[in-house]
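User: Hi! I have a protein structure encoded as tokens and I'd like to know what sequence might fold into it. I'm fairly new to this, so please keep things simple.
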């Protein structure tokens, strides 16, 4: 809400003389989303790593979204993914495949991308969790635009509640490591 207020400085009393809501969107651009999935018995949602341990558990899901030019700007957006997780006695494998398509009908351009990631980890002595992750992005002609390889180590002080996670990632360019293009990430996680 924004507007004008008049205040009597001798009494401190004031009144709003004009106003309007300023957070009402000027464009209507709904995004329609759908997701359906299945988790086997014993799988406690999607989390990376198998900190709970136990027998084989798995989950799979598919989702999609679409923005069909509700604001009439001649742009549309659609996409979706298929994702999964498999856990067994401290071992975890998870991944997803993605698709994204944008169309700019005014400028007659279109862009389609596909992507995927796969990650494997193992819990050692209920505390250490090394992981490896591979991800790639490509276009719809099966040309890989970018690849990334990430190595990680988690220190699980109190399972999901207190953990320190570190990773280093490398970009693969022309199927070779680009040693000038890497990142290191460190995260301390506290849940209460």
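Assistant: Happy to help. Inverse folding works backwards from shape to sequence: for each of the 192 positions I chose a residue that suits the local structure. Here it is:
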């Amino acid at each position: 809400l924004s507007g004008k207020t008049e205040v009597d400085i001798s009494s401190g009393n004031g009144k709003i003389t004009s106003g309007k809501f300023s957070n009402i969107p000027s464009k209507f651009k709904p995004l329609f989303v759908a997701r359906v999935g299945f988790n086997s018995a014993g799988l406690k949602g999607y989390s990376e790593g198998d900190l709970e341990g136990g027998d084989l558990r798995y989950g799979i899901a598919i989702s999609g979204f679409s923005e069909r030019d509700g604001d009439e700007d001649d742009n549309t957006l659609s996409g979706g993914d298929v994702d999964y997780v498999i856990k067994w006695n401290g071992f975890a494998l998870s991944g997803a495949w993605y698709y994204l398509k944008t169309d700019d009908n005014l400028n007659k351009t279109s862009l389609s991308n596909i992507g995927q990631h796969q990650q494997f980890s193992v819990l050692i002595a209920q505390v250490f969790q090394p992981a490896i992750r591979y991800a790639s992005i490509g276009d719809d002609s099966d040309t890989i635009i970018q690849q990334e390889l990430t190595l990680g180590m988690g220190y699980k002080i109190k399972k999901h509640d207190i953990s320190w996670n570190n990773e280093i990632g490398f970009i693969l360019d022309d199927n070779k490591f680009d040693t000038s293009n890497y990142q290191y990430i460190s995260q301390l996680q506290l849940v209460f």
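A useful reference point when you look it over: The CA atoms of residues 5 and 73 lie 38 Å apart. Feel free to ask if any position seems puzzling.
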